[in-house]
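As a next step, the fold was encoded as tokens, giving this record:
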Amino acid sequence: MLNIVMPNGASFGWGICGKMIASEIKKQLPIQFYTSKFSQQSIQDEFIYHHLKTCVHPIENAPFSGKERPALQAIADHEMNAWGPDFSSGFRMGYTFFENNCLSNTAIQNAQKFDCIATGSTWCSDVLQSFGIKNTFPVLQGIDTQVFHPANNLKRHFQDKFVIFSGGKFEFRKAQDIVIAVVKRLMEKYDDVLFVNSWYNLWPQTMQSIAHSPHIKTVNKQGTFTEIINAILAVNGIDLNRVITLPLLPNAQMASIYKNTDIGLFPNRCEGGTNLVLMEYLACGKATIVSNFSGHCDIVTEKNSLRITNAHEVQLKNNGVTTAIWQEPDIDETYALLEQAYINREKLQTFGSTAGRDLQQYTWENTAINFIRIFENQGISLKLI
């Protein structure tokens, strides 16, 4: 029996991660799933909902029964606080994705409360180990390969356009400012460029970080998310008649979006995980331009993507204290790769085909198996079904 303490959801990374990890581990062994706001609406998958509902407990019901059981618990923030109650168990493994790689003393102390920490990337594990947290191992997140796969991935719409896709919540770290800058340059030169963005951000406070950008203007506009994004695009010289700004969509609907585009643009400054949107896009057999830094390095290769390799360090500070050191992608290299993709679009299928094959190994089933393997390697016996 294993206690799993994680969020659930269908439209944000941690929610997808929590529901899929719980669902796949439950196929291997008995679990108790402590989560928040669990419902058919939050899961948006009838089979997973019915598979999990008999083992779900509200997070508010802590303290937990079966405290002697091992537990897998999400780590919620850059201070390494546990998601949900901080509780004792027979053996507690944390799972974390973080980007603030200059750990505070508080973060180090909180990390030491866990018996073991699994991370969403090799980069995160390396950071923890550099701060003396040695019992840490990467466990890469998965994708739903029944939904995200390379079959039937030729465009059915906008076949006369070069369609660029950019995804991820709108913020400085995700580098949508670089996307805006290079897309503008390409649109000014070629009139058949169409831009599709899926930038919905459930955490508006992080949107303000885009003001740090050296590349674009920002606006102080009230309105819907789509209206705000379109205002930012417009003030930066992008023709809104050549833009599709997507609302927040259920995860499963994104596959058809990806397949109707030509190239994905991911010049992210830092990723604590492997970037779920990028993984899904690659899995659909589509070519990408990707920053070759941090968590991206676990999944991108010279054969499955066009990699941005030139960068310089950018420091983030909070009250004068450096909290993170990220990589600032070279904007000229990013544009050069984008124009190269435009001119040589017939070659993109080679990258996409390789990506589609490469990403099929990253299933949520394998993620679950990797968690179980770490517990067993730590000497923790889990009663498998």
